[in-house]
Amino acid sequence: AQTVTQSQPEMSVQEAETVTLSCTYDTSESDYYLFWYKQPPSRQMILVIRQEAYKQQNATENRFSVNFQKAAKSFSLKISDSQLGDAAMYFCAYRRTGNQFYFGTGTSLTVIP
Amino acid sequence: NAGVTQTPKFQVLKTGQSMTLQCAQDMNHNSMYWYRQDPGMGLRLIYYSASEGTTDKGEVPNGYNVSRLNKREFSLRLESAAPSQTSVYFCASSELGGKVRDEQFFGPGTRLTVL
Question: What whole-number distance in Å separates Cα of residue A63 and Cα of residue A79?
Answer without folding.
Answer: 6
